[in-house]
Structures are given as structure tokens and as C-alpha cells.
Design a protein that fits this description.
This protein is of the alpha+beta class and 339 residues long. The chain has 10 helices and 11 strands. The chain has 2 domains: 111 residues, Phosphorylase Kinase, domain 1 (2-Layer Sandwich), CATH 3.30.200.20; 208 residues, Aminoglycoside phosphotransferase (APH), C-terminal lobe (Aminoglycoside 3'-phosphotransferase, Chain: A, domain 2). A 5-stranded antiparallel beta sheet has the order 1-2-3-5-4.
Length: 339
């Protein structure tokens, strides 16, 4: 038996874990002939690899390895982020049949690492590169997933690693945004403070929504589509910011930038599927208003990071202007979207 791509020490831990996965998947008599590793083209902030496990039977198992110990610069709360994603895949998604990547296992050694998450290799492309029909399917999948966890809320109980989308979560973002913008420009800080007068009103509305599992960053870049399956498989990745809150938090990411009639198609796909799965949803006009509340919060969150991440001043000014427009919609209870 050869292991051409593996070294000693930490990689021995990986080999032992892969051997257990092979035994669980193919049976105890299966023997690993070779393991090959190559960097994944989907590596982003964290390094990731494709593992090709060849067996003496001729079978092959491919896995996606996400390496939480390899990154260019540290993020905030990195330990919580990596542990959250591990627990979501292992303890929550593995108990539901929703088309998410299968959890195979992990190599996890606190506090120094390694921190390797081993998942099914999903063949797909990001929905941002797909036609609009697949965006609608991504909205429908989201409604199905969140309806499922609303009806099976017991699967979310006892998981303290999930972020709570509560009052302190939303209001602290406003406070951080005001400090960050004021450090850059006191005048912009005053504009932002005036714009956010209806923010408490939006927080109350967001907190009144039914609670379910939230992906936390349901961006088009984080949603894979495998169009070779029928129906197409929708597979969100990167669950580091998973939370308990309203499904409209995720929908605001997906629907951002769309106008009529495409916006209505996305909202309708989500709301119809969520309602079919038992999640209480509002009428379309109210849904637009709620999505605008979450868009306002998302803009506030970006502003809260603007000083530490050294956003260019023109970008900060653009975000403050967007916050002003969205706050105006929230205040007037209008349902149109900001251009």
C-alpha cells in the first residue's frame, strides 16, 4: 500500500481518519491503495484540497478537505467559526436529507490543530454563474430547508454554537457601525446616526419573525448548483455563521440587487415553499418590507467593519448613502427596493 501524497506526523492522522471513512463507506475489507491530494480550485479564505482515495478494489472516493488552519490573515472569532461549521455539518445537517454536502468526518486537535473538515465533493458551480432560473431554485431550496427546521425545531435545541439573531445581535451592529464611521469621518457618523432612527423599529420587526435555521451568509458565491441532477441539486456551503433567526435574513442576501419582476419571483419561490413546509410567511408586500429591514442590517454590518478593514472612503460614503435609502423605506413602510 502506498501513500504518495501524504507525509508523516499530522498527515498520519488524516490517513487514519480516511481509513475509518473508507471502512464505514465500503466495508471493513476495503483497503486503501493510494491517497492523492491536490489544491481545490475553490480554495478561498481557507485552503482546501481534493482527496482522491483509491482502493484495491478499483473503487475511488473523492472528498473535499477544508483546512481551517491555513489562511492568509485571521478573522474575528475564528475558533467559534470553525467549530460552528463542524457542528452544523456533523450534528444538524447530517440528520436531515436536504442535499447539503455529506459529512464524512474530521481531524480536529484543539488547540493547535490540525482542523480538517472532510465532506462530500459536490460537483457544481456557484449560482452567481448560473441563469436566473437557478436563483429561483436556490430561493425555493431555502424555503424548504427553513420550513423543515421550523417544523423540526428540536434538531436545533441545545446547540449553543449557533449564533442567536436577537436584540443584542442587531443593536450591537448599529453601535459598532456608528463608531467605525465616526472614526473615519464625524460628519458621516452624524449622517449615519440620523439615518438609523428607524433601526429599532426594524429590529423589533425582525425579531418577531418565526425562528428557524439560518445559513448566515446565503450569498450567490456560497450556493453550489449541480445541474446534472434532476431536479438540480442546490448545495449551500460555508456554514460558519449559522444561526437561529428568520429565514428572511438569508433571503436578503440572495435577493439583493433584483428588481421587479425577478424580485417577486424569488420572494414567491421562497414563501411558497416555506409555507408548504409549515413555516408561517407574510404576504408578498410585507415580505419585501422585511427583506428591506434585513438589507438595512446587512449594510450596517458592513459599515461596522469599515474602519478595521480599511474600506476606502468612497465605499464608506456609498454604504452610508445606501443605509439612508434603506432606512427611508423602512420608515415609510414602502415595499419598493432600492435601485
Amino acid at each position: 500500500m502506498t501513500r504518495p501524497a501524504l507525509n508523516q506526523d499530522r498527515d498520519d492522522l488524516l490517513f487514519e481518519r480516511v481509513a475509518q471513512i473508507v471502512a464505514d463507506t465500503f466495508g471493513r475489507r476495503s483497503t486503501i491503495a493510494a491517497i492523492y491530494r491536490k489544491r481545490s480550485e475553490y480554495s478561498s479564505f481557507y485552503a482546501s484540497e481534493i482527496l482522491s482515495v483509491q482502493l484495491d478494489t478499483g473503487d475511488e472516493l473523492k472528498m473535499f478537505l477544508k483546512n481551517f488552519g491555513s489562511y492568509p490573515d485571521p478573522k474575528d472569532a475564528m475558533e467559534q467559526r470553525r467549530n460552528r461549521e463542524l457542528h452544523v455539518y456533523r450534528d444538524i445537517l447530517a440528520r436531515a436529507s436536504l442535499g447539503t454536502a455529506k459529512y464524512y468526518g474530521s481531524v480536529w486537535d484543539e488547540p493547535e490543530g490540525p482542523f480538517w473538515l472532510l465532506l462530500e465533493l459536490v460537483r457544481g458551480i456557484a449560482v452567481r454563474h448560473c441563469s436566473f432560473d437557478y436563483w429561483v431554485e436556490a430561493a425555493r431550496w431555502l424555503g424548504h430547508m427553513q420550513g423543515y427546521f421550523y417544523q423540526n425545531s428540536g434538531l436545533l435545541q441545545g446547540h449553543e454554537f449557533l449564533i442567536q439573531h436577537d436584540g443584542p445581535f442587531f443593536r450591537s451592529a448599529r453601535e459598532r457601525a456608528f463608531r467605525a464611521v465616526s472614526q473615519r469621518s464625524p460628519d458621516l457618523g452624524k449622517r449615519l446616526a440620523a439615518a438609523l432612527s428607524p433601526y429599532d423599529q426594524s429590529v423589533e420587526l425582525m425579531m418577531r419573525q418565526p425562528k428557524t435555521l439560518v445559513h448566515g451568509a446565503y450569498r450567490p458565491a456560497e450556493i453550489l448548483v449541480d445541474a446534472s441532477e434532476r431536479p438540480a441539486r442546490i448545495c449551500p456551503v460555508d456554514w460558519e455563521q449559522a444561526a437561529i433567526g428568520s429565514g428572511f435574513y438569508d433571503l436578503a442576501f440572495l435577493a439583493d440587487g433584483f428588481k421587479s419582476p425577478q424580485l417577486e419571483q424569488i420572494l414567491d419561490a421562497y414563501c411558497t415553499e416555506a409555507a408548504n413546509c409549515g413555516l408561517q410567511v407574510p404576504d408578498q408586500g410585507s415580505a419585501k418590507h422585511i427583506v428591506n429591514c434585513y438589507r438595512l442590517h446587512k449594510t450596517v454590518t458592513w459599515l461596522s467593519q469599515s474602519f478595521d478593514r480599511k474600506f476606502p472612503e468612497k465605499d464608506v460614503m456609498k454604504l452610508v448613502s445606501m443605509a439612508e435609502k434603506l432606512a427611508g423605506l423602512v420608515l415609510s413602510n414602502r415595499t419598493a427596493c432600492v435601485p
